[in-house]
Amino acid sequence: MPPDPLFATDALTVRYGGVLANDRVTLTVDRGEIVGLIGPNGAGKTTLVDAVSGFAPATGAVTLAGRRLDGAGPHRRRAAGLARTWQAGELFTDLTVAQNLAVAIERPGWRTVVGDVFGRRRPDADGIQAALEMLGLGDAADRRPTELSLGQQKLVGVARALVGGTAMLLLDEPAAGLDTHESGQFGAELRRIAATGVGVLLIDHDMTLVLDVCDRVYVLDFGKVIASGPPAAIRDDPAVIAAYLGSAVAE
Amino acid sequence: MGEFLQFVFLGLSTGAVYAVLASSLVGVYAATGIVNFAQGSIALWAVWAVAALRADGTLVLPVGSVGLGSGPMDRVPAVAIGVASAVVWALLAHLLVFRPLRRAPVLGQVVASVGLMIFLQALVTLRFDTTSLQALPLLPAKVLTFAGAHVNVSDLVLAGAAVAVAALLWAYFRFTRPGIATRAGAEDERAARLMGLSPDRLAAVVWAITGGVCGLVAVLAAPTIGLDPTSYTFYVVPALAAALVGRLASIGLACAAGLLLGSFQTVILWLGTKSWWPGWAQAGLGDALPFVVVIVALFLLGGRIPSRGEVTETRLAAVTIPRLRPAPVALVLAAATAATLLTSGAWRFGVVTSAILTLLAMSLVLLTGYLGQISLATMAFAGTAGFALSKLTTSAHVPFPFSILISAMVATAVGVVVGIPALRIRGAQLAVVTLAAAIAVQSFVFSNPALTPFEGNLIRDPSLFGLSLAVRSGTDLTTARFALTVLVIVALLTLAVARLMAGATGRGFLAVRSNERAAAAAGINVAATKLLGFGLSAFLAGIGGCLIGYSRGQLSDASFTVLAGLTLLAMAYVGGITSVSGAIIAGLIGPLGVLYTFLTQTVEAGRYYQLIAAGGLLVTAVLNPLGLAGTTGHHARAWLSRRRRPPEAPPPGAAAPTGTEPAGTVPTSPEPSHAA
To answer: Is B395 helix (H, G, I), strand (E, B) or coil?
Structure first.
């Protein structure tokens, strides 16, 4: 029997009014594994990320390293090691890039109040710099998010999700806004991240990136998982081609 | 039963005013997206204008007055002119204040409408003879008997008028072409313009209608309710509570809630006369009611974290993350110390008051500027602490530093409770809740004879190690010892808050202010952070309240009025709500501070202070949405960097220092993205 996966959802279901946005979605991600999640627009990919990270009401189980997280609030899931990014970046525009990352490491509370007033606390500058450099953002630390390109802003979002003890990374279209070359670089960066033992669930429309970098791929359509397997198998799966990949394969 | 019904009907006049104000608030909100705190003040002017006309035919204008006829004016033309004056004020508010601010941050709009409210209120007090004028009867004085209750016909007429007004407003928005177009224009101004509509003109129609009906109902109700230079101004709070019951969207619900609230308040008044009613609840409960109504309504109807697809962007003034450099800090401290030691009497009292106000403004900088929570309850937190201080020093004999600390902790607890609604609501609606809370605290604690004796809450003078720190000594109005004590406390706390703002706590607060969803996803407990902000802010305000208490020797309901709280927020906003220097400016220009001392001592214009303050606020809010410190600081830095930078300097982004201290590396220019 294989060891427990790092991350698993079991029969995760999200219902918006009469619409089943996610219908009993069951998937797993192992340590150091990059798993793709693809599907046509409106298939429920972002809803799945919302449900897993605690932003959408869902039924079913979410497990991280054997710990049940369903029912916990978003910040608790993040503290447990489950981090996500956003399609729109959603950076803190009042803070610099480095401060955006610092926020995810030192969360405000009574302890930070005492530390700020009496101590000489400094954010973990090395950890922040390391995360930024892993994504090629080493010289952007002191700039404001609005001074960066949209693609770079999304990478800052990925870096922010990476710091603060992250074990599992949910990436919602991180490569949208990157050109082909940058997208290739991003693939390499993702591999380096996964090599540190972090599990990655990658949602993206860039098929080259997904099929190239992922170890396994799930395909979502109308809220249901319709196929899963290694990229090569997904590419040839007739159900997937019918639902989604038709045009991409024809290229 | 008959008696009960009688009181239910008796409350209908007040209820009718609430209902019409509430319907109008919903109407203005639907047309412009603005929560108009000044709606009651506009009606207040109409009431006084009619009273003056009917006394001797004088039409009082903001400047000067015109005699219309030789004697008292008849009721119909007087009412017509009074209502017209409300229409004019409403149109002026639209054209001069709210239209220029339609793309300003929510906080800017709230502050401007609060400024207008204070401005009109101050103007009424200055322009009208508030001691001898009275509201002469307008409606028939008949009494009906219904199920054993004596019912005034005037109460029924007013209630009927309120329902009619609500029905008319509802029909206007629902069925008429301009009404529907107004709603469309508020939703998408650009699309409306492309369709050839003019949202400005449509909004002006709504401002005029609502101003007129509010003026009319207040004028008709004044003979029953009585003439008072403030009451109608604050009727906006129960009206806002009623409007919030309808989520600022339903005119019918707002009207019904307003009428019910009015009746409920008189019924509570009646219950208070019963022998079985507890003595501590005899006063103030009716005023606390709107707060309860708002909380319940918001909790039943409110949504939590805004979900995907909703507009979550609340734009706020850009932030100056403080960087404590020794030289400027020492300079400010030296100046403050010199100002304390070189002055005496009233001037020193002004300096001390400014120092205390700086602390109160810091509490707003932290909560509103950094955490983005608009709070109008700061003075209520201060008042709570002052009240606790009185009880602790006179009854329990708690010695000086502990008395302040414990009192501030009490204020902290109240702050956390008032902060609970902030977990569900945001922006202008939160401002309404905190204002309702402030009024509840004021009436329930300070205007309640069971808690506050007639002579006020006495406070024993502080002393430390046998050394008296009393504010007065013999003929000395403000002792140097007391002034320096205040200065030390304020300086220490201000420095502590500045460190907080520059540290992890400040960054966390800014993250929550900028994007709650992303903050939660970054692992920040948004709810706990908001409560932390409210707690810290109330603690600072509480210390400030204790210092005010020690500086007066006794506290009454006049010490921490809701109006003073509103003026303070306004001043903090004018000064610059996101920076320490803004708080210092707010302290200097705040109520009873250095500017006030100057006006009373040097130019003898103290009674114009509120008007000048509110007028200055309106001008600054409209011209300068970033606040004085923000704008001047921005200009100063731009000027400095032009002078310092050699011609071949790298672009601003690359010029930022690359040290490890992040606090100092933040460009403080206003963000272009805020305007996007």
So the answer is: coil
